[in-house]
Amino acid sequence: MSRIGISVLAILAIASLLHTTTAKTIVVGDGLGWVVPPGGNLAYAAWAAISTFTVGDVLLFNFTTGSQDVARVTKEAYLTCNSTNPISLKTTGPANFTLDTTGEYFFISTIEKHCPLGQRLAISVTPPGSNLAPHYPHHPPTAPSPLSPRAPVTYTVGDGLGWLVPPGGPLAYLAWAYNKTFLVEDTLVFNFVNGLEDVALVSKEAYETCNTNGTIQVWSASPARILLNTSGDYFFTSTYPNRCALGQKLAIKVLTSRGILPPSIAHPPSSSSTSNPVTVSPSPGPVSSAPSKATAGFFISLLSIAMVLF
Q: Is 103 left (phi over 0), alpha (psi -120 to 50) or beta?
């Protein structure tokens, strides 16, 4: 075999190794696990929206044997919650599913009423090495979509859940915000127990690190009504110990009527020290160059190997 042929085989072998090493185990729902979720159908939809799935990955469903199960089903069965003829069914937790092909995968619980109550998951699996990033928190929505003017809306944060340490961690409030479009002049209402909770507007850094030593503004009386009269990204949490770390945190993007794109998944702005709770200005951070640098380094390495072998 010629040196060129050997070098080509070496490049292909290295590329294949790179792809196989990108496979990962993904815990469905993270800390929430596989249960009837507090956010209804949106809970696992929101979780899937911030995750990426590639061929070779393994889905791990954490549930209690005897009280839950997980079935892979067709799209039609997923939409209708029909568990009569699943593609596969696993009744012992934790259960693993290897994503061995590209395309759509659908999972539901076969326990009565669990699927209609939101215990179902739909994901899209991409080829290995596609480098598709999750929608949040790394990138804002990418395609513009004009929004029609409408009357201001009052949103009750968490709906019936209220504002507290949620079951499942941050996923609960992420799921609540996932399908909502927040516009200037809308109002957020935080319902909580006076003396046991509060709500604080914080910077992006404080939101990510759960450091509430330097809040922008704090509301300690319930219900707290917050007018969103400036477009941009808003970050809320609680100043009580451990609340933020346990998932009592909310990030939203507020748009004008000429906004960019729903649903509302906030792109982190730069830190703000303003004392006005309605002037948190969006400041999109620089897009990470890590993927492009890694790709460049990979091809440089392959070129070096080929040159040596040649």
A: left
Is the overall model pTM greater than 0.70, yes or no? no
Listed residues 107, 125, 143: the one ending a domain: 125
Note whether 183 and 113 are same-domain residues.
no
Does residue 173 sit in the same domain as residue 104? Answer: no
- Residue 99: which CATH number? 2.60.40.420
104 and 33 in one domain? yes
Count CB atoms within 10 A of the CB of residue 255: 21
How many distinct structural domains can be found in the chain? 2
C-alpha 204/C-alpha 233 separation (Å) is: 9
Q: Where are the alpha helices (DSSP H) in 180-289?
A: 204-209
50 within domain boundaries:
yes
- Please report how the helices 171-178 and 41-49 are oriented relative to each other, as an axis angle in degrees rounded to 10: 100
The Cα 127–Cα 130 span in angstroms is 6
- CA torsion 240-242-248-253 (nearest 10°) is 90
pLDDT in tens, the chain (310 residues): 556 555 545 555 555 544 444 679 999 988 889 999 876 777 888 788 778 899 999 999 999 999 999 999 999 999 999 999 999 999 999 999 999 999 999 999 999 999 999 999 999 998 886 655 444 433 333 334 445 678 999 999 998 889 998 876 777 888 888 778 999 999 999 999 999 999 999 999 999 999 999 899 999 999 999 999 899 999 999 999 999 999 999 999 999 875 444 444 444 333 333 334 433 333 233 333 333 333 334 333 433 433 333 4
Domain that holds residue 87: 25-125
Q: What's the length of the chain?
A: 310
